[in-house]
Amino acid sequence: MDKEITIYNNNHSADEKAICDRLATIIDAELGEAERKIWHAHPVWFLDGNPIVGYSKQKAGIRLMFWSGASFDEDGLNIRGEKFKDASVFYHHVSAIDKNDVTRWLQKSKEIQWDYKHIVKRKGKLERLK
User: Fold this and answer.
1) Are 55 and 62 within 8 A, CB to CB?
2) In terms of C-beta density within 10 A (0-12 exposed, 13-18 middle, 19 or more buried), how is residue 57 classed?
3) Which helix (H) or strand (E) element contains residue 64?
4) Backbone phi, then psi, for 101, in 5-degree steps?
5) How far apart are CA 53 and CA 47, in angstroms?
6) Distance (Å, rounded) from C-alpha 18 to C-alpha 80?
7) At 97, is the secondary structure helix, strand, or coil?
């Protein structure tokens, strides 16, 4: 696991850290080729400079967000973004993480992508890459 991501995960309660560690492990296993870094204060994985998946602590729990997740047609990603194509799920305990679901979503994140990398250049307009 990336050093900065480890530091991020360690700055949470034991339950939150367990969730973050589990998510990072699953994501790293499926997106080994991805660039990973702390971006806007939380861990994010990128493919070709395009943000794909990340997680963050919020009031509702640890949020796992897929930037193109609204296009995955997955009931488990039940928190939809209002302006963009993101979708999320919140976790309150590590036991709630279904590895098969997360793995399937990560596979879809490789196949279905909206171009966030150039969103500023396109003045907020998203275009589908894949």
Assistant:
1) yes
2) middle
3) strand 61-66
4) -65, -50
5) 10
6) 25
7) coil
pLDDT of 94-121, one tens digit each?
A: 999 999 999 999 999 999 986 766 666 6
Q: Is 76 helix (H, G, I), strand (E, B) or coil?
A: coil
Looking at 3.90.1150.200, 2.60.120.620, 3.90.79.10, 3.10.560.10, the CATH number of the domain 3-111 comes to: 3.90.1150.200
Q: What is the pLDDT of residues 3-47, one digit of tens each?
A: 999 999 999 999 999 999 999 999 999 999 999 999 999 999 999
- State both tokens at 69: 């997740």
| pTM of the predicted model as reported, rounded to 2 decimal places | 0.89
Burial class (CB within 10 angstroms; exposed 0-12, middle 13-18, buried 19+) of 74: middle
Is the Cβ–Cβ distance between 81 and 87 less than 8 Å? yes
- Give the Cα separation of 100 and 106 in Å (integer): 10
